[in-house]
Amino acid sequence: MVKDHLANTTDGDFFDQMRKIERDALIKAGDKEALAILDEEERKAKEEAEQEENK
Amino acid sequence: MGGRGAEYDKGKLIDHLKGEGIGKGTPVPMDIEQFKGMSLQQIEARIRTLKHEELFVLDKGGNVVAAYKGDSNSVAFPENLRYEKGATVTHGHPKSAAEFGGTFSFADMKNMLTSKWTEHRATASGQGEMNYILKRTGRANAKGFYDQINRDYTKLVSGLSKTYDKAYNTAKTKGANTKAAMHVARQSAVGTLNQYYKKTAGKFGFNYVTRKEAYEYGR
Which residues contact B106 (CB under 8 A, 6 or more apart)? Predict the structure, then answer.
């Protein structure tokens, strides 16, 4: 790996921020079903990312 | 995304884009030998199937000259990549981000507008997903476009949230199930950014193109 303190990224925290916007909207709406779907999606995405990382 | 607030501070335009995508990763270069002879279309077909982001740099002749591996949210690249004059740079928006991956992020826009690249592309994963392409023309005013996004930044960010809310509630009212309503709301929210780029790019001498398949033009 190349250490580069001036590294840039493509998307930064954009997708995290979008997920936060979504979660905030659903919390505000008190939509428990939607929040459960979000939790499950995030759990699955994390699991898939870990699996790919370990390949 | 950076902080929110007024677009001007003491008469000076606030640079919301400055902090986008900075210092959050370490570039992980890939051995480009394995991509030798691959076309842009083949590279993007690869990117489309991944669960992590990858970024490829192609020279004017279409040869892969650098490639970097990222994670499910972004891919890091070294600062000097910005100075690759005439390069085509493409990267993926993986499936986990795909419903929010329907256009360029603010960091993507900043990267293009502060670089010497000719073309920046994002490839969203999933069936029927698009390629998003921003190409510099001979009359490109990158600084003007950069400043315009900064002027509109607060409105754009708050628009993402408002659009999500409205689209979600409308879908639910019309009887959509929760998953479908979320899908519509996500697409609508990033759709506002997509529309903004489409509307604004031409004013500053950039072509903003969306295509359903890997697409090569004007190279």
Answer: A12, A14, B1, B2, B16, B17, B20, B149, B153
DSSP 8-state secondary structure symbol assigned to residue B129: P
Q: Kindly state whether B166 is in contact with chain A, defined as any CB-CB distance less than 8 angstroms.
A: no
| B55 close to A (CB below 8 A) | yes
User: What one-letter code names the amino acid at B155?
Assistant: K
Q: What pLDDT digit, counting tens, does each position of B111-161 carry?
A: 999 999 999 999 988 666 788 999 999 999 999 999 999 999 999 999 999
Contacts of B29 in chain A (CB under 8 A): 2
Which residues neighbour A23 within 8 Å (Cβ) at sequence distance 6 or greater? A35, A38
**Shortest Cα distance from A21 to chain B (angstroms)?**
6
Mention every residue, 6+ apart, whose C-beta is less than 8 A from residue B9. none
Give B17-151+198-211's CATH code, choosing from 3.10.590, 3.40.140, 3.10.450, 2.30.29. 3.40.140
Strands B119-124 and B88-93, how do they pair? parallel
Q: How far is B190 from chain A (nearest CA, A)?
A: 9
- pTM given for the model: 0.89
Q: How far apart are CA B81 and CA B114, in angstroms?
A: 11
